[in-house]
Amino acid sequence: MAIQHTRQGAIAGLEKLLARGLPVDVRTSSGDSLLMLAAYHGRHATACTLLARGADPELRNNRGQSPLAGAAFKGDVAMVELLVQAGADVNRAGPDGRTALMYAAMFDRVAVIDTLLRLGARADLRAADGCTALQCAKATSALRAAARLSDRASATA
Question: Which site among 23, 64, 82, 111 is 20 to 30 Å from 70 CA-CA?
């Protein structure tokens, strides 16, 4: 029920379950926390509620993905900002070495790239395969992301 409430943004129902003792960081069988589901589904108010109750913005699922990576993949700038303000590390990588910036680059999420860079993301970090965010963008033909990261690299060189 908590999963359904979170996906739908049904805060009142979720609040009732939390008030009855449901752990705020409860997970699905795939390891997705309620905060991960809220981030992925763009449920900002639900994410705020969970964070206010102590949800861990760094809690990763069974694949090592964070709520921040999910928000970056979806292109949700407001969620990215919310999660970082709540303590999500913009440079923390998953087991594959990919950061939220790399996910934003791979999926051509230019507004998220700009936001993450403004919030301190490092474009020079490398994933386990040696790819930087720029190389990730090029590898997935994310042309706008590649152009933005190339422009930034030129400006900082």
Answer: 23
Q: What is the pLDDT of residues 122-139, one digit of tens each?
A: 999 999 999 999 999 999
CA 112 to chain centre: 10
Q: Is 33 helix (H, G, I), strand (E, B) or coil?
A: strand
Digit-coded pLDDT (tens) for 11-34: 999 999 999 999 999 999 999 999
Contact 104, 138 (CB under 8 A): no
Structure tokens at 145: 């992301």
Please, are residues 41 and 7 in contact by the beta-carbon 8 Å criterion? yes
Instruction: Retrieve residue 138's tokens.
Output: 């090029």
In angstroms, the CA 76 to CA 11 distance is: 20
Report the 10 Å Cβ neighbour count for 79. Answer: 24
